[in-house]
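Lab channel / #folding
Pinned by the channel admin:
"Please post every new chain as: sequence first, then the structure tokens as a reply. Keep commentary short and put observations after the output so the thread stays searchable."

First post following the new format, from NK:
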Amino acid sequence: MNNFNLSPRIVPLQFALVGYEKALEYLDRSQTSLSTEEALEILSARDELQNVLKTSERVPVDILSQVMQLDLRLKQKAGKILKVLNLPECRESLSAPPQDWWWHLDAQQVNWLIRGLTIIAWTGSLGLLANIASRFLSGGVGVLGAVAVVFPSFLTLLQARSELTEAGREGLEKLIAKLGIPQYYREEAKLGSLLALSGLLLSFWFALPLISQAYNQEGKKNYEQGQLGTAEENYLRAIALNPDNVDAHYNLGNLYEDLQQFDKARSEYLIAVKGNVPEAYNNLARLFIKKKEYPQAVALLNQGLLQAGKQGSFPKVKYNLFKNLGWARLQQGRDTEAQQALQAATGIAEVAESLENRGSAHCLLAQVLERQKQTSAIKQWQQCCQLGSTMNPDEDTWLHLAHNKLQEAGKSCKNP
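Reply from TO:
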């Protein structure tokens, strides 16, 4: 660039180009860092070159090529300038237009990795928000559901406003400046805020099973208090938040069975059975017994007993499994197996006196012994009579049979 035998109109352009090149030499030093004055000198030199370029009628191709090469050097080493200059403040002071790209080097320093992570974070955040909202809305929106949908949605909207609107970006820039975050880390800081939002939504998503279980427990309380409609709503919310909540499926099936909605109950029990809930095996088997599908019932009960043994289930669970197994075998005419299962059930009932349906096993065992014409059937009929309850639909039928058998034998409901 030492050829000055050109048109006088080109001389100012040559001087500006040389000044720009000289200023860029500050960026080539590896031993010392760039000072604020040197950084401003580089950008000012580029300003001067631009002013000359604007006033030039025709710029030679070789000069344009040199300008492009020098600009590339500036862009490649822009990080050094960003470490010492706060470009947003410079732009505010100098009113630098967007086309003066050298005053906007910070915007050009967002590398592909940050952009890629930003896209991934936004996609993940919106996906999580949609998933969370759909689960709460599909199960019916209660107070907790409304808060759970509105709060993360509000945070996401705030984040979107700060990223996607001019006012939001300016506000975020000012906040980052107040926090003392260096300019060359500001895009990372913005990404950090987005990742924080993603982390919050992800944590909330991982907490859905816990929230689901809370709804399930609330549903159980409603059920025990006789508030069946509210109980159903809470069970459905629990399942919407966590379809794998087998306890909620079982409880909902139990509620539907109480409401005589047996098809719905069977569907819920089938899901709970996939989660190896012994109580679900028992209740589903009982529905099969009532439909006279005894082989299916027996298979379920045997599997339920296996799971109950593995899981150390409560005596009540094992009692009902043995009782219903005896019932199914009785209906199949396999009396020996029925007697064994029912004796196991009555043995558990002697220890667990808090069982609500203690009379059921005695009623069924009495029928087995009666068919075998054993005199010990009378004692079982008396136990059935004493312990049974007409509030239990199954026992109500058996109690009627017990009274008839005792009357035929000249016995009372009480032991002689």
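NK: The first helix runs from residue 11 to 24.
TO: also worth noting, The mean pLDDT is 82.
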